[in-house]
Amino acid sequence: MSDFSNIVVIQTAFLGDLILTLPLVQSLKRNLSPEAIDVVVVPSAAGLLAGHPAVNAVIPYDKRGSDSGLQGILRQAGRLRRNRYDLAVVPHRSLRSAGLVWLAKIPRRIGFDTSSARWLYTDVVTYAANEHEVVRNAKLLEPLGFKVTGKELPSLYPSAEDRSVAERFLSSNGMAAAGNLIAIAPGTIWNTKRWLPERYAELAKRLVGDGLAVVLLGGGDDRELCERIKNDVASGRIVSSAGKLSLLQSASLLQRCRLLISNDSAPMHIAVAVRTPVIAIFGATVPEFGFAPCGERDVVIEAKGLACRPCSIHGGDQCPIGTFDCMTAISGDEVYRRAVESIKTVAPHSQRTDGAGRVRG
Question: What is the pTM of this model?
Fold first, then answer.
């Protein structure tokens, strides 16, 4: 048992950022064996951590809703203060996150030197811009006296009920027996990170023509896009789950898939966390930012050599120079070829293990 028995981790950024924080949480649990590690997240991400053995409690923080503004920060800080944490680890680099743990009077507070309020931390760690996010986050543990080597993968833990719901979804759409299921996640909140919908549709047609089955993944905001792609393919071997499943139910569905083809968006990180290989299509952003999928068989496809890339760390609503070359230069033939290559190297889902090391079945 370490000197820290009650730990809180603050990560209220995007869903993918939360998943990439999980190796940090897993390392804290393994190395310090605290009584509890709680994680503060935005409400939309809270369900993702259910059943994770390293997480004691998930604390929602509605920073853009009921807990917005200074009064919201004070309320949330009061809730954290009542939990009497002795250590806060904060990979999120906002002023709000730093202020939250300071106002909560947590005695040991670790954050990055690029935080908007680094002076509110007791320990400041250099943000390694040239490293993968998983490796960067692991460096936050060095002030505690141990160094994480290698790149640990995040893990998610869909429940038996999550798996049952995913199986019922497939069964109700005539895909229960599909052993060659390919997932496609065509959506993202950033338009410049989205490969062309018509190319996703053409890709899906070719995969279905090869005798594979395709499931389209996404949230409620992706429902229309996924339905349009499904209708363009016009086959009984493609179905859309967009907006129909919870996060962990979608994770369980991904466990059933041989491969995920995705933009630079949250589904690729979910796939990594359940050990489903990924082909990630990068446009406005670049892997060098540190947010590429990090599984052993994961592949990134990008248009290299463009002077305009990257144009933004997150992406944007439209191409700043009006060409969208970063996505139009990526052909359907290239993505299809890489998909076929990946499928050949991946065992059926029943012969692979999930994020917990259990055999999928």
Answer: 0.94
